[in-house]
Amino acid sequence: MIRILVVVLLIASGLPTTAQDNADSPVIALLKELKPLPKIHYSWPFPLDKLPDDLLFEYAHLTNAASLSGEWSKVEHVDRAVGICQRVNAAKPKMRASIGINYSVWHRRFGTDLPPADVGPTHLG
């Protein structure tokens, strides 16, 4: 588990961030050594327009998921996530990869001082 956290931190730090990165990347090599997690792990959406396919594939293979933003994703991001999940699933894993959509409407739609279970006037929209 600690190794995958290190990998996530490396990804988030921007180490492999260009399409020129390839399967020889040290981060991708590290990901290939890890076994897939025993259940689906959705994450905060990755910047799909900045990460190489090999990296996204290995991450989706490990986590059984590709996560998108419900607010900022474009059609090409959805298409790319679908393609990555199709590649993972074509490898016949024990658990099929799926797409998670992160939609944090509470950050913008409701008062920041309100509790998450608020059902006051802003609740009805």
Written description of the protein model:
By secondary structure, this protein is mainly α. It has one domain (2-124). Helices cover 40% and strands 8% of the residues. It has five helices and two strands. The protein has a two-stranded parallel ribbon. Helix 2 runs parallel beside helix 3 (53-63) and helix 3 (53-63) packs across helix 4 (75-90). The protein is elongated and about 55 Å long. Mean pLDDT is 81; it is low at 16-20.
Structural class: mainly alpha
Helix proportion range: 40-55%
Shape: elongated
Measured between the Cα atoms of the first and last residue, the distance is: 41 Å
Mean pLDDT: 81
Main β-sheet: number of strands, strand sense, barrel status?
2 strands, parallel
Strand content: 5-15%
Count helical runs.
5
Number of structural units classed as domains? 1
Ranges where pLDDT stays below 50 over 5 or more residues in a row are 16-20
What Rg do the Cα atoms give? Answer: 17 Å
How many DSSP E strands?
2
Along the chain, the helix and strand elements come as HHHEHEH
